[in-house]
Amino acid sequence: MTDDKTITIPDSSAQTLAAIGPIARSSVVDAVADRLRREILAERLAAGSRLPSERELSLALGVNRLTLRASLAQLEAQGLITTRHGAGSVVASWRERAGLDTLALLVGSLTPQDEAWLELIASTLEIRRILASEAIALAAARHTEEDLVAIEACRRDLEAHTHDATAFARADVAFMRAVVRAARNLGLELLLNTFARFPDELPQTIEALYDRCDESLPLYAVVVDMIKSRDGESARTNVRRALELVDGERLARHAAKHARPKPPAARARKSKGSKS
After folding, report:
1. pTM
2. Residue 73's CB: how many other CB atoms inside 10 A?
3. What is the DSSP code (8-state) at residue 13?
4. pLDDT at 2
5. Which residues make Cβ contacts (< 8 Å) with residue 109, sequence separation at least 6?
6. Residue 188 and residue 120 share a domain
C-alpha cells in the first residue's frame, strides 16, 4: 500500500541520499549493498553515523524495503553496519569489525588509476606472502607422497595458461590449495579462499598482477623442490625473500605505468633547477 504523505528529510540525511542516488532496478539486492558498501569503505559515510531510515533509503535507491533489508543484512554480516530494532542502522568502524574479505572489496572498489589502489595491492601482496611462505614451510614438514603428486600436477597445469591471466590466476590458486592441503592447516585454507575469489570478481586486478606469467614459472618449480626438501625453516625464509623481490618489481612496474604526469610548470621548474 502506497503512503502519499509528504516526507520531511533532515539536512544531513538529505546530503547522504543525494550522494547515493537512485539505482537500476535490475541490479537488486547485491547492487544496493554494493552502492552502500562503496560509500562506507570510501568513508563518505563515516563510522558512527546513522543511515537514513529504511523508507528514505528505499525511496532514494528506487527499491522496496524487502530488497533494502536484504542488502543491509549483507552489510551487517560483513561488519560494515550495526542494526538494532527501533534504532535504525549505524555505520560501524569497519577497520575494527570487518574481516579479510573486506580487502578484496576495497581493491574491487578502485582501479589501477586510483592513487589508493597501489597501497591496497601492496597490502594484499604482503598478506599473500605470509600465506605462501607459511603454507610452503608447513607443507615441507607435513606432506605425503600423494600431496607431492597433486602439487606437481598443479604446477604442470600452470604451464598451459601463461597467455591467459585469468586462467593462470585460477591455476595459481589451485597450486596454492594443493600446497595448503599438504600443510594440514584449515585456517590457512580458509585464508586462501579470500584470494580464490579474485580471478572471478576482480578481473582488472588480475590482469595487473599476472602481467608476466611466463617469467614466474621457474618459481613454482623451486617451491616444489623446497617442499620435497622437508626443510621448513629454509623454505619459509627463501620463499619470503623470493616473493618480496617479485612483488617489489611488480609494484614498481605498476607505479611507473600509472604515474600521473607532472604539470608543465612543475617540469619546467625541475629542469631549471637541474641546470643551475
Report:
1. 0.76
2. 14
3. H
4. 46
5. 37, 38, 41, 42
6. yes
